[in-house]
Amino acid sequence: MNTQGEKSLWSATAAPLGLFPTLREALRAQVVVIGAGYTGLSAALHLGEAGRDVVVLDAMDVGDGASGRNGGQVIPGLKYDPDTLEVMYGGGQGAKLVATVDAGPDLVFELIRRYRIDCDAVRSGWLQLATSESALGPIGKRVRQWQARGAAVESLGQAEVARLTGSQRYSGGLIDRRGGTVQPLAYARGLARAAQGAGVRLFTHSAATHLERSAGEWRIRTGAGGVSCRQVVLATNAYSDQFVEPLQRTVVAVPSLQVATAPLPPDLRRSILPGGQSVSDTWRLLRYFRLDAQGRLVMGSRGVFGDVPPARAARLHYRAVQEIYPQLSGISFDYHWSGFVAMTPDHLPHLHDVAPGIVAGLGYNGRGVAMATVMGTLLARRLLGEAAEDLGFPVTPVRPMRLHRFSRYGAAAAIQYLRTLDAVARFAERLTRRKRTM
Questions:
Q1: Does residue 3 carry a pLDDT above 60?
Q2: Phi and psi of 359, rounded to 5°?
Q3: CA dihedral 229, 232, 235, 237 (to 10 degrees)
Q4: According to the model, what pLDDT value does residue 405 have?
Q5: Given the DSSP bridges, would you call strands 226-229 and 278-281 parallel, antiparallel or unpaired?
């Protein structure tokens, strides 16, 4: 998907950030962080607070990748329910992992409070909504498992979902009161300011081009400068390139596209998501939506591979908005934009010890606001000397995918297949509703 020349809602509404310099000299630091998104900025902030001399390098501007293009939904947990994670990793390590991902939203909103980050933060919960009766069973299991661990998660009936969303489309769902929303680019910029305040040096438009080991330290070259250091954080996620080629082959960069309406009229704004929750549904290609601070409805889902103009790809999203909210028929759309999500074969984020003194974290599978922020703290703790078994998150070897060069085609085919299944399911549902009214 072509993302060049797009102006996202978030770049149009985030408070401006002063320009950072381009690296044009040779520097020394204790730690170099490559990537100025949530992962890299969180790591840099926590390392800076611990007294480390840190340099951050980014090929673009702060938050120009997924951190400034996502839906701004702060969602706790991972794809798998807590019982499943404990089985996968064993009771002790699994329970630590569950506790780590449970606390993700707490960390995000605490950083926002502590550093007074102006990012339209709202913590009124996250709704996961069932698109069919059959989806209520797995949602109910999820609720019971999180409740058993003391989380503020509750089941919702169809009437309550309709009241909270203003849509009659859903059969029920859950509310997870740990979740919330942020203006995602403003949050990234706020982390950058906080890192600067902790003494971190940030350089943008300074792509790392070469990494080598010499005399017991790492040397990183950019187009016009370089940095020598003892430790490195690789935080490039879906925007990993040939510079980190083995890491690049551990994820598939999948396109995601979002649209935003014009600000809703006051009467509709009072009835559509009046409590300010964010929403994800249970389609195979899930849809996620929310209101922004100006009352625009923001809707996202998977995009399309290939050089397709976003304005054309966005038509599916326009139809989705009309399906969920028929009362918005005729409303104009002010923005559409796209970016990439890093997906992993096991649907889990990965934390790696890449080489002596080099760590990496990536692969958030669409839950990056909370999880990438947490990952940054984990990477910082690892470089500060914490043992892998004490982190509360598994440290795994780098395992590049076989035949990765074909993964893009496989992902494109899978997305189209799932999109077709969802379309057939929606068609069958419409037929069923018609029969009931005849």
A1: no
A2: -125, 160
A3: 120
A4: 64
A5: unpaired
Helix (H, G, I), strand (E, B) or coil at 297: strand
Residue-wise pLDDT for 272-302, tens only, equals 999 999 999 998 789 999 999 999 999 999 8
- 3-state DSSP assignment of residue 263: coil
319 and 205 in contact (C-beta within 8 Å)?
Answer: no
What is the per-residue pLDDT for 310?
Answer: 73
% of the chain at pLDDT higher than 70: 91
Task: Supply 436's token pair.
Answer: 């009931």
CB-based burial label for 158 (10 Å; 0-12, 13-18, 19+): middle
322-372 pLDDT tens trace: 999 999 999 999 999 999 999 999 999 999 999 999 999 999 999 999 999
CA angle 302, 306, 312 (to 5 degrees): 65
- pLDDT band per the 50, 70, 90 thresholds, residue 240: confident
Nearest alpha-carbon partner for 288 in 181, 421, 420, 375: 181
247-272: burial string, b at 16+ Cβ within 10 Å, e else: bbbbbbbbbbbbbbbebbeeebbeeb
**Hey, what are 305's tokens?**
């591979």
Chain segment 157-188, per-residue pLDDT in tens: 999 999 999 999 999 999 999 999 999 999 99
Distance CA 24, CA 358 (A): 24
Q: How far apart are CA 376 and CA 71, in angstroms?
A: 20
Close Cβ partners of 299 (under 8 Å, ≥ 6 residues apart): 258, 259, 260, 287, 288, 289, 317, 320, 321
What is the C-alpha separation between 227 and 221, in angstroms, rounded?
Answer: 7
Tell me the pairing of strands 217-222 and 226-229: antiparallel
End-to-end CA distance of the chain: 43
Q: Is the dihedral of CA 26, 29, 34, 36 positive or negative?
A: negative
Other Cβ atoms within 10 Å of 175 Cβ, number: 23
User: Which pLDDT value is given to residue 203?
Assistant: 98
CA 219 from centre of chain: 30
